[in-house]
Request: fold
Amino acid sequence: MKTMTCKQLGGACDKEFRANSFDEIAALSKQHGMEMFQKNDAAHIKAMNEMQELMKRPEAMKKWFEDKKKEFGAQPEL
Reply:
């Protein structure tokens, strides 16, 4: 199991997520983002808007995902 924060995953806070795979941690991050969106959290909404801009450039988005997967892989096992 590995840990990454919301900020490490492109978000806006230091909430930690723990998961066994990158896909699992990405899903936890997405769920947290949706909760923060529903709470109208300005910092998280700003981070989501930045991510939406990145998604408009497929190559940049692909690189972002590859970099985050590598970062996840480099995290120490708990």
Notes: Residues 2-74 form one domain. The chain is about 60% helix and 10% strand. Residues 22-38 form the longest helix (17 residues). The chain has one domain: 2-74.
